[in-house]
Design brief:
Strand order of the largest sheet: 2-3-1-4
Strand content: 25-35%
Distance between the termini: 27 Å
Helix content: 25-40%
Shape: globular
Largest sheet: 4 strands, antiparallel
CATH architecture: 2-Layer Sandwich
Radius of gyration: 16 Å
Number of strands: 4
Number of helices: 3
Number of domains: 1
CATH topology: Alpha-Beta Plaits
Oligomer: single chain
Order of helices and strands: EHEHEHE
Length: about 100
Amino acid sequence: MYDCKDCILRLIFSHELYDEMTDVLFSFPERELEFMSLDIQAHMQSLESITEQVSGFKRRKMVEVTIEQGEAKRLHRHITQSLPQVKFQAQLLPLLTLDENL
């Protein structure tokens, strides 16, 4: 497993859960988190509403937090304990520094 000091924890969830998710992120007990949120379009087979079927995508929210790997695991646990009924996707990505000579 790759060990990253600085990572990006990417959370993807239903657009309707944005307020709940941000409340949980702001209540992280270890420190105040700064994060970026974006509206995204998820293209998938299980389009349910007529709006999704016509547009061809589901509206989702994506939140990205720059964080250390161990802290990311604790944040993930905080989210799942605070919102046990919520389904979301979490991805931990290494944050790489680009070589200035490129």
